[in-house]
């Protein structure tokens, strides 16, 4: 596979279990840019809450989103890929406040497929019990938001190629 260079900073978003942590690095490699794991920006208190099966509040998320936004801001014009659930419009607005040029790749899929994938992964702090709250919170990308939706059926390579193709249709960011 040939690398496709991009100055975009891409936020790979979606509910837990859509494959953000799998697709993000693959997409970054295809785009020839660095990848940052959004979960690494969480303070320990957030991880403890989620591990206990307690959904995060917006107040829990603001510092996390701000940290991701700062990373994206620092990559402006250079490109990068970072994962973040970014489930609500207000969360994406918060990211855009820090990094106005970000674009979103919304990984979407059937709930049953996502739950099945979540039940087979190991070593992740997000239990499948929180999937309903994730879907209840999800506000899909709106027409005025820079981004694309990509279906998560198929293998990681297929999903990544769909994301690359969809991103190539977006206008280049202003530098």
List keywords for this structure.
globular; 44% helix; five-stranded parallel sheet; alpha/beta
Describe the structure.
This protein is an alpha/beta fold and 175 residues long. The protein has seven helices and five strands. Helix content is 44%, strand content 13%.
Topology summary:
Layout: E1 9-13, H1 20-31, E2 35-36, H2 44-51, H3 58-74, E3 80-83, H4 89-98, E4 103-108, H5 111-120, H6 131-137, E5 147-151, H7 156-168
Parallel strand pairs: 1-3, 1-4, 2-3, 4-5
Helix pairs in contact: 1-7, 3-4
- The secondary structure category is alpha/beta
Cα end-to-end separation: 28 Å
Mean pLDDT: 88
Helix content: 40-55%
Radius of gyration: 15 Å
The helix/strand order is EHEHHEHEHHEH
Q: How many E-type strands?
A: 5
Largest sheet composition = 5 strands, parallel
Total number of helical segments? 7
Task: Give a short summary of the structure.
This protein is an alpha/beta fold.
